[in-house]
Amino acid sequence: MYGNDFSGEDAPGGLLGEVEAAEAALRAAAERDRGAAGPGEDLAAYFAQVIDADQKIEPRDWMPEAYRRTLIRQIAQHAHSEIIGMQPEGNWISRAPSLKRKAILLAKVQDEAGHGLYLYAAAETLGISRDELVDLLLNGRQKYSSIFNYPTLTWADVGAIGWLVDGAAIVNQVPLCRCSYGPYARAMIRVCKEESFHQRQGYEILHVLAHGTPAQKAMAQDALDRWWYPSLAMFGPPDGDSTHSAQSMAWKIKRFSNDELRQRFVDMCVGQAEVLGLTIPDPDLRWNDERQAYDFTQPDYAELMQVISGNGPCNRERMAHRRHAHTEGAWVREAAAAYAAKQKNKEKVAA
Ligand code: FAQ
Questions:
Q1: What atom of ligand 1 comes closest to residue 243's alpha carbon?
Q2: Distance between the two ends of the chain, CA-based, in angstroms?
């Protein structure tokens, strides 16, 4: 039914096969001799040499300040997205249609928290603390993905998020497993493996609904209608308007442009929608023999900019909820800090 949903013709083993290959490449890069010369006097030349050789920049290495800042921006935005991204689905944990569905959704939402934590830890290797990053989010100085500013109105939306949002996240993140910054690439490998389960659970929810009663099928179609274009917008502005792509690709942080990944996502979804028996809400979606890819209608990028700038349907609600949770969690952070201080003191006395 959905066993081969990641199989692209261009990649043996599909997207998960690419994750495995990236993991092997990471190991090989770690073992390779970086060159007897080492960084020497010219740190910038050595940095360029490591990037050119497809090796990994590690926290101990010198890196241009702009590279460090770009990574902090992207990794932090990614981490915040995982954390805020728990809200739309979290909304349905108490209303899942069965105990089994509830348990699965609970595990999925917990995984997103875990992804946020790996990513905050990866960002911290760049010399910024998690507290600072959280403050930047809460003060509105860092972003999170536009997609989490849309409401989850029905149970089918939980399926659509798994299928489309996690699906788009995987298409975007698999190339990040080959990112030039080691800690981010390593975090992505684990995240992608877990996301593949998320995508499948969402797809399975929609499959059951789409093969259920006419009302259930209509609910699944309605969810696809509402989530399709916001999911396409997740990949960011079109290449011509993408401020960071050229530099990020030169540094091998990003491996493909926003439009390339969006196209890949559309091409992957068409066959999956057919298996579901649902219709992608795009009358202009058709195979282009010349390009060997689907032509499709672009999402509304003016809407994307509105959502990014804080005016999406749920931006205020999401941030209010996050601020409230942060305040409510203060006692946990204080208790953890007090416990750590006590342990440290004990170790000191023992020494
Ligand atoms: N939303 O120059 P570009 C998930 C901003 S995780 C908000 O093209 P870039 C898992 C961009 O930051 C989803 N802002 O930027 C999950 C920049 O603003 P700035 C998150 C956006 O970085 C599933 C400006 O527009 N994934 O879903 C968006 O080269 C289910 C110009 O854009 C990641 O973060 C947007 N959609 O490319 C969790 C992946 N698009 O900073 C729970 C890592 C663009 O100059 C439930 N990130 N912007 O003010 C990336 O791959 C890249 O950062 C892109 C954007 C591709 C998102």
A1: 2
A2: 60
Q: Say yes or no to pLDDT of 8 above 50.
A: no
Q: Which atom of ligand 1 is nearest to the CA of 245?
A: 29
pTM of the model: 0.93
71-125 pLDDT per residue, tens: 999 999 999 999 999 999 999 999 999 999 999 999 999 999 999 999 999 999 9
Considering just the CA atoms, what is the radius of gyration of the chain in Å?
21
- Rounded to the nearest 10 degrees, the angle between the axes of helix 315-328 and helix 65-84 is 90
Question: What is the tens place of the pLDDT at every residue in 216-257?
Answer: 999 999 999 999 999 999 999 999 999 999 999 999 999 999
Rounded to whole angstroms, how far apart are CA atoms 142 and 74? Answer: 9
The finding on whether 166 has its CB within 6 A of some atom of ligand 1 is yes
Q: Which two tokens stand for residue 326?
A: 């942060």
Which of 72, 74, 248 to mutate to test ligand 1, by most ligand atoms within 8 A of the CB atom?
74
Count CB-CB contacts under 10 A for residue 142: 18
For ligand 1, whether the C-beta of 279 sits within 6 Å is no
